[in-house]
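Dear U.,

For the methods section draft, I wanted the exact inputs and outputs in one place so we can describe them consistently. I've listed the two proteins in the order they'll appear in the manuscript figures. Please don't edit the token lines directly; just add comments below if something needs changing.

First protein:
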Amino acid sequence: MRITVLIAIIAILTSCATSKEGGAKKKTGSIQTNAQCGDCKDRIGDVLNYEKGIIYANLDLDTKIVEVKYNTRSTTLAKIKQTIAEIGYDADEVKAVESAQKALPACCQPGGHD
């Protein structure tokens, strides 16, 4: 009898844990930036890859596009764009925060590698 009850409790707990994970939705997005060099890539990656809800982020320097995989229960593409803007870079339609952009090294500012 006790074993049956224990098995039932384990089954209920397992189904609860599974249903919570089932609600998590992973999504992938692309964000156009004005990043220019390896330092930009490192700066963006260092911030995004430690943000809550972001599973993976990588900047392609050739296209200047950040590919990001994220959990929609924890963050949104709009929040990720805002985070990139707060680092000092444009992110699609979201313009860089001016004070953050001015704080970037000269080579990472718009026109710094022209």
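Second protein (the one for the lower panel):
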Amino acid sequence: MTLSPIQRLNRTVLLACAPFIGLMIWLSITNFSITLVDSGASQASLPDAPRLSQYSSGTSNGLNDAAVIAGQISQSIKQVSELYVKTNESMDAIMKTAAAQVNRPAQIYDTRITSKLGKQIDSVQSSNLRAQLFAIQAQRFSGYALKVQLKSAEGMKLALGKDKFGGSETTLEAVRRTGAIAGVNAGGFADARGKRYPLSTTVVNGKYVNGFEASYNDLFFVGLNDQLKLIGGRFSSQAQLDKLNPTFGASFVPMLRKNGVNLAIPSKWQTSPNRAPRTVIASYKDNQILFLVIDGRDENGSSGATLEEIQLLLARYGTVDGYNLDGGGSSTLIFKDRIVNHPSDGQLRPLATNFLFFK
């Protein structure tokens, strides 16, 4: 049992006062008294002078006995104190061992899913998150994986372009503007009147940016809730989404994986295009988040990955849910202020929304 600071103080005070308490108890049960006499009278002038000498002798013996008892009490207290310290040390060791055993299953799971991602090429560890970067090399394409374990609500956010509805900026610009450690492109967008607006339902800081829009065709909403858990799917009403307490999120098409099962890909998205640069967000059963950013030379369908190939990766990596994000020239991964992937436009594309990560 861990003692509070007040309990430790009370125990220390009690140990310090024990010798004096023991002495007081001894004096209360011992037939001991001291008689004071007038300093002006000599011992010889007192009728009971011999008895005063006896009292002095008895007092001396009593004090000697008290000193012996006090010494014994002090020695006992020292032994108890040493035992107390050793007991605390043993309990601390037991608690640390118990904590390690409790965390062992989570550590084993994390080791297992991490090993499937291949060799780690970079990482960031802080009080807000742990972010690990991996290189992906498949037969027909290459790319990167970013696995993120969030530790606080400050570790990840969704940012509008220049923090404005209708604004746009590259992922690198968003990272540098906000002081983020990493960034990944987020939802789709639509251009109108010279501005770039986020596609469909978008939530930033717990608020709907432009109201709620019920899912239509193959659109979905994906984001994080107040428990740092990835939430996503099709929603017919705002009340349905509100029940999940979204903190932030964006919309795109299509959903790839749900509850550990790959979903059927709508025919439109199987060929439009067939292969392309891709960005995907997925989750693990321990609520860690996985981003895949796949490179491709262009968007004409001759390079990059198919959505079926992405599904195979998501299954191989052991993810639970998976959602396709805006791809093509939008696919961007920034880590430690550098562009990690190879954007197919040859330069970074200004976007309406970006996922950002903070130390």
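Candidate sentences for the figure legend, describing the second protein: The longest strand covers residues 129-137. Confidence is low (pLDDT under 50) at residues 32-50.

Thanks,
Y.
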